[in-house]
């Protein structure tokens, strides 16, 4: 048991207590960030004349060698240390002796861990954003290739009006684009440096907190030392934004699972992204989509957990806050993994365009357009609605679609119908006439795709 304290204790810590208290099993995940923070701290201490330049260089050399040895596997992070901070400091003292004992001057583990967690979250936000961008690029390809792929658009999971695959996928493009902007917002708001806050009340050493902040790429320094060591808002914001990413992925997965079912047959998930059944030889299951949908609960769980942990904590640091790590780390890894797998799955998925188009035709998705035809010929919309309702009933009786109903039967229900009704209710017309900004019409869709391209180039 190697710990940084003990002077005022007369007994050894109970083994179970030690293990319960220790965080090294999980906070070793940010050894890089811990070393990065220590290096900046030491540079600042030397600049302020608190350490000599020689001490600074010895400490920096020691920290670099620890980093290199951990990365190469030569130095193992073991549970013999209480946390990653103790591990680094103890190893530093082993390596360089007395100057190593000066590393923690003007610092507490409270501001140190607040910094490490911020640095880690900031790095991970960038990785999540990069995964989201790859997903958007994959969606953009599907959109570009499917401006003319007709499919039913649904409301209440009932066929409603025809759209295109580009348009449907475009809806998800918007969601994941907003997710990226949420990541950027969080990064911006959290980007102040807590180091120098000390345990809670700052320090009597003449630290230059702004210099440390600058060295670590922060926009500035946190403004209240008590808040600095006890703020985990940005973790909650990230978990909330990641929950939203998962919610979006999960909705899309749910659709893919439906589309991949024998009943829909809109898509065929690639063999590489499907699994079989141990008993039923015919099965090809959408397990990846199901797992992504399932893991959404896990990320929501992390959000709920940390919100609950934080709600009763009086100022300033309390050990409860150590609970911010495991679930956040797990959630981050889960989200990154899910986005990457999902991207692979959608970009290899085959869309059965013929089945999608036939489904759009067979579900009366052009009924609104038939009513609009009547309106364009002077029939008030409410009457037109009733007339087309009766047409639909006739078609259901006969088991046919609107475009298969003979003109005489149209005329029987309303004499206004002429031969050009078939043109008016064709999938092509139904989609191509919908050219309001944001609608599935091909002209406006091409415009959106061009805007997406511009966005992906600049962001
Ligand atoms: N492992 C602790 C955490 O994650 C580090 C800070 C410990 N500070 C303290 N005063 N015990 O929060």
TrEMBL record:
Species the sequence originates in: Blautia obeum
Biological processes per GO annotation: L-arginine biosynthetic process via ornithine
EC number: 4.3.2.1
Sequence similarity: Belongs to the lyase 1 family. Argininosuccinate lyase subfamily.
Keywords annotated in UniProt: Amino-acid biosynthesis, Arginine biosynthesis, Cytoplasm, Lyase
GO CC annotation terms, alphabetical: cytosol
Entry-linked PROSITE patterns: FUMARATE_LYASES
Pfam family, one: Lyase_1
Listed HAMAP family: Arg_succ_lyase (MF_00006)
Catalysed transformations (reactions): 2-(N(omega)-L-arginino)succinate = fumarate + L-arginine
Subcellular compartments: Cytoplasm
Enzyme class: lyase
Major site of localization recorded for this protein: cytoplasm
GO molecular function, one term: argininosuccinate lyase activity
Boundaries of every Fumarate lyase N-terminal domain copy: 7-301
Pathway: Amino-acid biosynthesis; L-arginine biosynthesis; L-arginine from L-ornithine and carbamoyl phosphate: step 3/3
Name of the protein in its database record: Argininosuccinate lyase
Argininosuccinate lyase C-terminal domain segment(s): 364-432
């Amino acid at each position: 048991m190697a710990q940084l304290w003990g002077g005022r204790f007369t007994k050894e810590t109970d083994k179970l207590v030690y293990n319960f208290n220790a965080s090294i099993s999980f906070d070793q995940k940010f050894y890089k960030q811990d070393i990065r923070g220590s290096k900046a701290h030491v540079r600042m201490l030397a600049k302020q004349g608190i350490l000599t330049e020689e001490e600074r260089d010895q400490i920096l050399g020691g920290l670099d060698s620890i980093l290199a040895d951990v990365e190469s596997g030569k130095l193992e992070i073991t549970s013999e240390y209480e946390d990653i901070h103790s591990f680094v400091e103890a190893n530093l003292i082993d390596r360089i002796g007395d100057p190593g004992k000066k590393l923690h001057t003007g610092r507490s583990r409270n501001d140190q861990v607040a910094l490490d967690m911020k640095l880690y979250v900031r790095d991970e936000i960038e990785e999540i954003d990069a995964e989201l961008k790859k997903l958007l690029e994959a969606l953009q390809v599907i959109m570009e290739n499917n401006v003319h792929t007709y499919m039913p658009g649904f409301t209440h999971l009932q066929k409603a009006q025809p759209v295109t695959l580009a348009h449907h996928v475009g809806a998800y493009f918007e969601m994941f684009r907003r997710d990226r902007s949420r990541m950027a917002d969080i990064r911006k708001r959290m980007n102040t440096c807590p180091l120098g806050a000390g345990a809670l009340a700052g320090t009597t050493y003449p630290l230059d907190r702004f210099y440390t902040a600058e060295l670590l790429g922060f926009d500035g320094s946190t403004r209240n030392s008590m808040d600095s060591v006890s703020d985990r808002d940005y973790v909650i914001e990230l978990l909330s934004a990641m929950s939203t990413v998962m919610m979006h992925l999960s909705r899309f997965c749910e659709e893919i699972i439906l589309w991949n079912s024998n009943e829909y047959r809109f898509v065929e998930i690639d063999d590489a992204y499907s699994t079989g059944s141990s008993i039923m030889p015919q099965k090809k299951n959408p397990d990846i989509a199901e797992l992504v949908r399932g893991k959404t609960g896990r990320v929501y769980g992390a959000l709920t957990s940390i919100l609950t942990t934080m709600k009763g904590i009086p100022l300033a640091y309390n050990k409860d806050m150590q609970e911010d790590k495991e679930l956040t780390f797990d959630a981050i890894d889960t989200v990154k993994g899910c986005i990457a797998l999902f991207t692979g799955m959608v970009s290899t998925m085959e869309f059965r365009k013929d089945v999608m188009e036939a489904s759009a035709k067979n579900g009366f998705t052009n009924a609104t357009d038939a009513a609009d035809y009547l309106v364009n010929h002077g029939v008030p919309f409410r009457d037109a609605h009733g007339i087309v309702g009766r047409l639909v009933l006739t078609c259901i009786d006969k088991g046919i679609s609107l475009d298969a109903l003979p003109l005489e039967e149209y005329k029987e229900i309303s004499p206004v119908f002429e031969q050009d009704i078939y043109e008016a209710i064709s999938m092509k017309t139904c989609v191509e006439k919908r050219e309001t900004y944001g609608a599935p019409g091909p002209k406006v869709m091409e415009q959106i795709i061009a805007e997406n391209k511009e966005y992906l180039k600049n962001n």
